[in-house]
Design goal:
This protein is mainly α. It is 38% helix and 0% strand. It has three helices and no strands.
Amino acid sequence: MVCSMLSGKELPKEFWPKAVNWSVYVLNWSPTLAVKDVTPEEAWSGIKPCVDNSRVFGWLMFMCLTVK
């Protein structure tokens, strides 16, 4: 999964740790046959995960800072 993500976005190997973290995150928040009718995260915490903040791996992100 990590190799596919890095090659798909043409990212260097320096992004390997971030890709591994994202892969684990996605797998924990995705349905699986190991736990029936819930995600692994929901089975562990008892709280249904919210995926509203999910983004595609490799998207550029810009941060705006407001100086007061």
